[in-house]
TrEMBL record:
Transmembrane segments: none annotated. SUPFAM superfamilies: Periplasmic binding protein-like II. This is Extracellular solute-binding protein. The lineage of its organism: Bacteria, Bacillati, Bacillota, Clostridia, Eubacteriales. Pfam families: SBP_bac_1 (PF01547). InterPro entries: Bact_solute-bd_prot1, SBP.
Amino acid sequence: MLSTGEKFDAFHVMNDQVTLTSYASRGALADITDEMAEYGQNIVANVPELAMNNCQVDGKQYGIPAFWVETALNEQATIRKDLLDQCGLDMPTTFEELTNAFITVMENWEGNQRPYFPSVAVNERLPYFFSSSDDFCVYNSVVYVNQDGTIANYYETDAFKEAVQNGKTWYEAGLINPDILTYTQDQLTNQLNLGEWFVLNGTVGNVSSIQENIPDFEPTDIVWLDLTDGAQQIRPYAVKNLQAVPLASEHPEAAVKFFNWAYASQENYDLFMNCLLWVPQWGCRCVFVLNRLKFCW
C-alpha cells in the first residue's frame, strides 16, 4: 500500500519487522508534529515523554506509541480450568499444588500427545515461572537486577537455584518433555494449537485452532493462575511499536484525532482495543484492515 501510493490514513509499525527510521528514511511517513501539538493533548497526557520521543526522527514526530503488551501477566501462568474440572481439582494457589495437579492431569490424560509443559529449551520466561519471587529481572540471560537495585550474576542467586530445583522436579516427574533440548518452535506451536497442554508460562491468542481439535472448548476454559499471593510485581510500560501516518494521507490530522479520542477515556480505549469499527465523531467511519486504519469521509 505504501509502495503504490494508496491514500490511507494510518498503519501499524512493527519495529522488529521494519523500523520507524527505515520508513522515515524512505520518505514514506508524514511529519505529524504540528497535528500532535493541535490535536494530540490526550495522547501526550497519557503516554510517557520517553515513549513519545522514541517515535521521533531528527526532532520530527512520525508516530504515536502503541501499548504493546500487558507485562503484569508475563510471569504468570495460563492454566486449563476445563482440565482441572474434569479431574475434580481446585485452582492451585502454590507451586506445590500446581505440581500435584499437573501430575494428576497427566495420569488421567486421554489425548493423542502427552500434555508436557509447553516450552523449547531456550525460554527467557522460565526463570520467572519457576521462581517464587517476582521482584527481579534477568537481562541478557545473565544479569540479575532486583527491585531494590541489587545487581548480580543470575547463576549465583537463590532465584536461579530455586528455578533449577523446580524445573528438575517437573522433569523428573515426567511433566517436561524428555526431548526438550531438540523440541522445535513449530512443534510447540502445534502442541498449543491442538490444546495438548495443561499449564503454560504465558498465554494463547485465538482459541479457534484449539476448538478445531476440541469442539466444545470455550475461551473461559483458559484462566490466569497467579501464584504470587498478592505480592507486588514489576510492571514495565511496554511500548514497542507505534502508529504512523503515510505521506500519501490526505488527512494526516484524522489519525491523530482518532488516537486522541481513544486516549480520552478508559471507555474509549477499551472500545478501541476491542475492534472498534464505527466512530461518530467528525462524521467519518474508521475500518481496520490488516492493521491499517482507513478513515472514510
